[in-house]
Amino acid sequence: MTTDTGAALELGDIQAATLMPRPNPYAGAYLALRIDDRHAARELLRRLIPLLEPVSSFDPGRPVSLGVGLSFAGLEAIGVPAESLATFPSEFQQGMAARAAEIGDVGENAPEHWEAPLGSKDVHLVVAALARDTALMEALVVLAQDAVRDLPGVSPIWQLDVHVPPDGREQFGFKDSISEPTVEGTNILGSNPHEAPLKAGEFVLGYEDENGDLPPMPQPEVLGRNGTYVAFRKLHQRVAAFRRYLRDNAADTEATWLAAKFVGRWPSGAPLALSPDKDNPELGGDPTRNNAFLYGDDPRGLKCPVGAHARRMNARDSVITGQVRLHRMIRRGTNYGPSLPPGVLEDDGAERGLMFAFVGAHLARQFEFVQKQWVHDGKFIGAPAERDPLIGVQDGGEFTIPQRPIRRRLRGLPDFVVNRGGEYCFMPGLRALRWLADLDT
Ligand code: HEM
C-alpha cells in the first residue's frame, strides 16, 4: 500500500516500537542514559542497532523487543552538527520541562517537583525494552547494562519498570490501550472501523500528512526520514483518592457508573456509547466491537458525557471546535508500581501510575495541543469551566453528567493524576541510527 505522495512507507526502516501494537500481557522497562563521551554513545548505538526490529519484520511472538530515542540534549551530546540541530522543531529543542506552562504542568506538576533526572539536560538516550514476562525482562535489563559496562562515557541514570497485566487494566481499574488510529500504508489493523485511516505523515516523518503537507523534517534527510517523536510522562495515579471521591459522590451501587462517566468506558472496556447503562464484559473484551462506535447519535452526551476523558481525547464525529483528525496520536500506556488492592480506600504511600507515551510526527499540533486544549480547556466542547475529569489539573474544576430530567454537576474536583516528569524524544529510523553511529565529528 502507498501514501498519496506515491512514496511507499519504508516499513523496513521504521522502528517497530513506533507503530506496532505490543504484546499483552508484558513486562518492560524504560532506561535513561547520559552521554558524557560521544564516541562511547556511538559505539552503544552500534551495539543496539542489530537488536532493533523494523516494522516489516516485527514478530508479535518475539520474546523481547527494544525501541531507542534521543532527546534534543542527546542529539547534541552525540555530536549532531549545529546546522542539523537547528532544523528540529522549537518545542522539541526546548524539551518537555521548558514547555511546562504550555502543556498544563503547573503547581505540583511543575518541573521543580519532578523526579530527578527527569526534566534535566542529562536525559540523553531513552531505551524502551519490552519482554513477554518479568523474568525475560530482568534478563534483558542485565543485557542492556552489560552493553554499557565497558563504555564509561555512557551512564544509565534512571530506570522505570513497567507492566501491562493480563486484563490490560490501568491503575484506576479500567481496560486501556483499546483505541488506536489506523495508519495508512501499513497493514496494521485499526481498532475503529468507522475511522478512515490517517495519513502516514501524522505519525512518521517523510510522508504526506492530513493537511496534504510533508511535515517539517529534520535535516539531513537521512536523519529525519522515517523518524517520529515520542513524549513520555510518568503519571502518578492517586487511586485511593479516586475511590474515595467515587464513594463520597455516589451511592454504593453508583460508584462504578460515576467512574465510567469520567472515563467514557466501563472497567471492562465496554464503551458507554454502546452500553450506556451497565458494563458488558463480553463487549469490552471483543476487539471487533469495543471500539466500533461514533458519538453522532448522542450529541448531548446522555450516554457518554461530552466531557468524559476518552470522548475529549477523541471526539470522533461529535460537533466540536476544530478538527479531530489533526490531533490524533498513537499511545503506549503501561502501569508502574504495585496495584492498590481492591476495596482499599486509604493511600498506602506507594508510587504507582501510568507511564504514558505519545507517538506522532507533530509534537505541537498533536501532543501539546491535546494537553492544552482538550485536557485543560473546555471551550472546544462548549464547557469552558470543565477540564478532563480524570487527568486534568483541576483548579476547582467541574464535570457535568447530562441526564434526564436534570443533569448532574460535580464541583471542586480534586486532581487524580500528577506528572512526575517526562521528556520529548526523537525516535530515528534505522538508517538514521546508523548515520548517528557513524558521525565523525
Ligand atoms: C494516568 C493517566 C491516564 C489514564 C489513567 C488514562 C486512561 C484511559 C482509559 C481507561 C482510556 C480508555 C481506553 C481506550 O480507549 O483505549 C483512555 C483513552 C484515551 N486516552 Fe487516556 N489515560 C491517561 C492519560 C492520557 C493522556 C496524558 C493522554 C493524552 C495527552 C490520553 C489520551 C487518550 C486517548 C487519545 C484515548 C483514546 C480515546 C479514543 O480514541 O476513544 N490519556 N485513557
From TrEMBL:
The highest taxon in the source lineage is: Bacteria
Q: Which InterPro entries match?
A: Dimeric_a/b-barrel, Dyp_peroxidase
GO MF terms listed in the record are: peroxidase activity
Q: Provide the alphabetized UniProt keywords.
A: Iron, Metal-binding, Oxidoreductase, Peroxidase
Q: Does the record bear Ubl conjugation in its keywords?
A: no
Carries keyword Metal-binding? yes
Cofactors, names only = heme b
Q: Matching PANTHER family, A to Z?
A: BLR4509 PROTEIN (PTHR30521:SF5), DEFERROCHELATASE/PEROXIDASE (PTHR30521)
Q: Which family does it belong to?
A: Belongs to the DyP-type peroxidase family.
Q: Would you tell me the protein name for this molecule?
A: Dyp-type peroxidase
Q: Which organism is it from?
A: Streptomyces hirsutus
